[in-house]
UniProtKB/TrEMBL annotation:
SUPFAM superfamilies (alphabetical): Bacterial exopeptidase dimerisation domain, Zn-dependent exopeptidases
Coiled-coil region: none
Recorded superkingdom: Bacteria
Name of the protein in its database record: Allantoate amidohydrolase
Keywords: Hydrolase
Protein family according to the UniProt entry: Belongs to the peptidase M20 family.
Amino acid sequence: MTAAGLLGDIAGVGADPRRGGFSRHGFDQSELELREWFRAEAVARGLDVETDRNGTMWAWWGPPADGAVVTGSHLDSVPGGGAYDGPLGVTSALVAVDLLRARGFVPGKPLAIAVFAEEEGGRFGVACLGSRLMTGAIDPDAARRLTDPDGVTLADAVRAAGLDPAGLGPDPVAMARIGVFVELHVEQGRGLVDLGAPVGVAGSILAHGRWRFSFAGEGNHAGATLLTDRRDPMLPAAQVVLAARRAAAGIEGARATVGKVVPNPGGTNVIASTVDVWLDARAEDDFRTRAVVAEISDAARGAAEEEGCTVTVTEESYGDTVIFDPALRDDLATTLGGVPALPTGAGHDAGILAAHLPTAMLFVRNPTGISHAPAEFAEAGDCTAGAVALADVLAHLAR
Ligand code: GLV
Ligand code: MN
Ligand code: MN
Ligand code: MN
């Protein structure tokens, strides 16, 4: 079976006809279905599967032990996401095991595939939730209280999935198991297309985070309320969208996005009483990222005051620039015959783990350059090249 073929096997799970693409979120029905699919695929390969207390699935080739060579990714998606972001890393890991077995490879070190929960934060709002919990990058009490759009807390969701919410949090035992982590991922830009290469290694990840702007005004009637009598929180909310583009455009390499706006109560003929606006901001370093957010926050506060509204700004998650282990990056690039190294603006569990242990990523060419959308793509041949590269890398690291 090929990596693209395995993606075809799960194409019916979490398909979202309303948004297009896939909506698979941490511990929801479709993600739980994918977990069972992964368990069956791993068991069929003779791997031993366990789920740790943060909901990370581990499939072990040989007995679990410290210092293992670990690969993997995630099975959840953004709302209406593509087929490749996450699952390609998981299917490629399974195929890499097949390739290594076919080569008669005998691991000299323990090998495992890890599948992290809620990498996109599409349900509970915090990206890389599983790896943040494991590494201690998020307070477990705050995490347990995270709430999905239906009001379900993370604590309730993990309990429903058969985990004990009290077990969420830093896991030094699981951390010690990872000697080195390599995540294969579809590229989320056109870097490899421009270089004419099917596979590359990651160099760095932009500093990035998520901020929530909560505006409060006065709910009222859209027809009966004079313009002069309004305190409409949608006006300062709109200024966040405009300020985001303006602020990012003023700083080399910065990006700022408003992808989610929730007015309450959300009626066409209703002036909203509150509006929540989520900002995703990224830049080369901490200083630039914070400068972008500060400029947008100033604009939000000014616009709120002008409209007689209030605003609170909450940092929901943040991570500084990641520079992947240069020695490991160069070692893997050489192992693969000199493939290019690329920076990325996208966040990954590998980026969270990079603060604690040697971590690397392999990217597979994406001809559309599009990601977090249904047009995300990788040619089947490039997926195979990626799985072979991953097998080569695992063989090298676990020799
Ligand atoms: C996750 O994919 C992110 O970069 O937002
Ligand atoms: Mn993603
Ligand atoms: Mn991903
Ligand atoms: Mn990601």
